[in-house]
Amino acid sequence: MKLKFTKMHGAGNDFVVIDGVNQHIDFTPAQWKLLGDRRFGVGADQILLVEKPTEAGCDFRYRIFNADGGEVEQCGNGSRAFVKFVSEKGLTDQRSITVQTKAGVIAPRLEADGSITVDMGAPILEPGRVPFDAEGLQGEPQGRDTLWPLVLELGGARESVLISAVSMGNPHAVQVVDDVDAAPVELTGPLIEHHVRFPNRVNAGFMQIIDRQHVKLRVFERGVGETLACGTGACAAAVAGIRRGLLDSPVRIDARGGQLSISWDGEGQPVWLTGPAVTVFEGEIEI
């Protein structure tokens, strides 16, 4: 079939976005992977599918497929691209919508200045629900958080890193580093992603604190690799920093692809993600 798509990005985290409201889309993992391939397909960190909701009270259903073809629970930067897409395509005339995801309902809102704010829901902080297997580990308390040691095998040597385990509908392991530009993201990112204590794999975040409301962040995303920005990773990093007593809301997150803003009022409260969404081009591919 010939498939029409829109290429978009949020702070450099790039997407192929597909209208599944006006056409039926039922691709195999191999076809999603082909779409995400930067040499043989369109190329993207994630493919976003807009569908009619299956839950009452929602305006749309939002499905996310990583570049490896696997479907995942959540994508914060993608949610901003999602609301811009449905607005530009005339699928809604509302500036604020409710969207069904695998991780629950989110509420993106198109702001007057063109930026997009998303209610990402409350973070999940209990290790077993992240999910993270903390059995047998001795956690290290810091502020209201517990830091967990992860042992990484590095070419015969063993290294332990302290992480905060946070879920924003998808799992994150956040560590604080002195210099994010020098952090071994490509070396240790895959080891953390596939660590046995994360049964569903995990997104690995590397956060450098600039001041109490400003951090620099790199994220090695599950099923993708390092991306220029990660919206849920930014949320998880801000939550971890606030719980550790190192940050105050709102937090400016400098990713390699742009800037995001995160607000959070504490346990049980939703995390608010604000940032840009950009349409790059429209296209068509035989798939």
Automatic annotation (TrEMBL):
For this protein, the record's Pfam families field holds: DAP_epimerase
InterPro entries in UniProt: DAP_epimerase_AS, DAP_epimerase_DapF
Positions the record marks as coiled coil are none
Task: Give the E.C. number(s).
Answer: 5.1.1.7
Q: What class of enzyme is it?
A: isomerase
Ligand binding (substrate): N13, Q46, N66, G76, N77, N170, N203, E221, R222, G231, T232
Active site (UniProt): C75, C75 (proton donor), C230 (proton acceptor)
Q: Where in the cell is it found?
A: Cytoplasm
Annotated site, Could be important to modulate the pK values of the two catalytic cysteine residues, chain positions: H172, E221
Q: Which reaction does it catalyse?
A: (2S,6S)-2,6-diaminopimelate = meso-2,6-diaminopimelate
Chief localisation class: cytoplasm
A GO cellular component annotated for this chain's UniProt record is:
cytosol
Keywords, A to Z? Amino-acid biosynthesis, Cytoplasm, Isomerase, Lysine biosynthesis
Give the source's domain of life in one word: Bacteria
BP GO annotations: lysine biosynthetic process via diaminopimelate
Q: In which pathway does it act?
A: Amino-acid biosynthesis; L-lysine biosynthesis via DAP pathway; DL-2,6-diaminopimelate from LL-2,6-diaminopimelate: step 1/1
| GO molecular-function terms, A-Z | diaminopimelate epimerase activity
SUPFAM superfamilies hit by this protein: Diaminopimelate epimerase-like
NCBIfam families membership: DapF
Cited function: Catalyzes the stereoinversion of LL-2,6-diaminopimelate (L,L-DAP) to meso-diaminopimelate (meso-DAP), a precursor of L-lysine and an essential component of the bacterial peptidoglycan.
What family does the entry list?
Answer: Belongs to the diaminopimelate epimerase family.
> What's the protein called, per UniProt?
Diaminopimelate epimerase
Q: Which organism is it from?
A: Duganella aquatilis
